[in-house]
Amino acid sequence: MAIAGRCKVKTVVLLGLALLSFVAEGAVPEGRRHGFRVRRNLADADADATVFDVMTYGAKADGKTDNFEPFVKAWKAACSASAPATLVIPRGTYLTGQVVFQGPCKSSNPITVKIEGTIKATTDISEYPTAEWILFELIDGLIITGSGTIDGQGASVWGYNDCSHNSGCQLLPVSIKFHRVNNSVVNGISSVNAKSFHMFITRSANITVHDLNITAPAKSPNTDGIHIGSSSFVNITNSNIGTGDDCISIGQGATNISISSVFCGPGHGISIGSLGKYKDEEDVSGIVVKNCTLSNTTNGVRIKTWPGSPPSQASSITFQDIVMDMVQNPIIIDQNYGSHKSAPSRVKVSDVHYKNIRGTSKSPVAVSLSCSSEVPCQGVQLVDIDLAYKSVRKSKRMQNSTLSASCLNVKVTSGGKQNPPACP
């Protein structure tokens, strides 16, 4: 009965919000494609805003009361306001199950969500009819800020994750999902112990993410830090991410993505892909990863595609000014990801640049470029690569191994320092 009651409340809230002014699905308003509209009002977003404190709407910061209804009531009031609005979650610990913050909102100013407390997810998976915990959707102009923490309490459910041996597995709830959100800034908050991905950005545009702390144990399954798919003009910077999976993963349909000044570790590195798992995937292009450090990760900078895939493309990709600190596979293209199928991948990888990548590799094969036999990689460039082999084993044979590069179905051009020597 409690779950049925909650669903009824959600339905009423969502229907009410749908009556507000309409924003076209997935559209970026004209004139905003090359900049963030929210910047215009960032400086005074709080100064003139009406504050909607969740405590006023009945929230209890006791760590055990489900705050779904107070959170949604506060959001509804803030989203319906004509003037600038700030929803505040003050210090304290707030428990909640799945909650949807849906627009479009009434004001032309960005709506602000200020998180100063700790929000904890309920652990009963039956309370999550869809694969997200906190969902922001259909919003044009959103600022999420504060010094608070989003705690997915993932340790209670990680044991149910079977994705390591089941490619068709059902992911557990994402901690924060942005769906059809445009012109947004997310900064300052922390995300810990997500049930699966910490942050998922999809069908969105003009998103800036900075100064985040994202953490989960190294053995936690599928706890990607930030995943981006079918979105454009996403900028991630000045953040610390350490998880049990990719620190940042870039999926199909991602274009014009910038990642800089990110410290990644532990985790599986910064990855483009996996691509080519499903039919009709959108192309990936315009990816720049710069000034990042990867420490004790399984991979460094990686492109991964499934074998036997439908055709698509990943192009115009740059990895530059990257530090590798004891990384197992510093530079890797894997077009036979996740399977031993004989059919080659049909994801065409091209125009890929690795520049000024330095540090230490745990593996004697520091550069592994394994491309598709059907659509070989094109335009792959290695410039100023300076990696040293540093084995964690004590065997003299391993310590004296020569660092090398391995290349398959790819012709590489190189320049500057090449350690290991580039493939011919």
UniProtKB/TrEMBL annotation:
A GO term, aspect molecular function: polygalacturonase activity
Keywords: Cell wall, Cell wall biogenesis/degradation, Glycosidase, Hydrolase, Secreted, Signal
Keyword Hydrolase: yes
Catalytic activity field: (1,4-alpha-D-galacturonosyl)n+m + H2O = (1,4-alpha-D-galacturonosyl)n + (1,4-alpha-D-galacturonosyl)m
Record's subcellular location: Secreted, Cell wall
Pfam families per UniProt: Glyco_hydro_28
Domain of life: Eukaryota
PROSITE patterns: POLYGALACTURONASE
Signal sequence coordinates: 1-26
Active site per UniProt: H268
Keyword Signal among record annotations: yes
Record-linked InterPro entries: Glyco_hydro_28 (IPR000743), PbH1 (IPR006626), Pectin_lyas_fold (IPR012334), Pectin_lyase_fold/virulence (IPR011050)
Enzyme nomenclature, EC number: 3.2.1.15
One GO process term, biological-process aspect: carbohydrate metabolic process
Chief localisation class: secreted
Physiological role: May function in the depolymerization of the pectin in its walls during pollen tube elongation, or in that of the pistil during pollination.
Record family assignment: Belongs to the glycosyl hydrolase 28 family.
Name under which the protein is recorded: Polygalacturonase
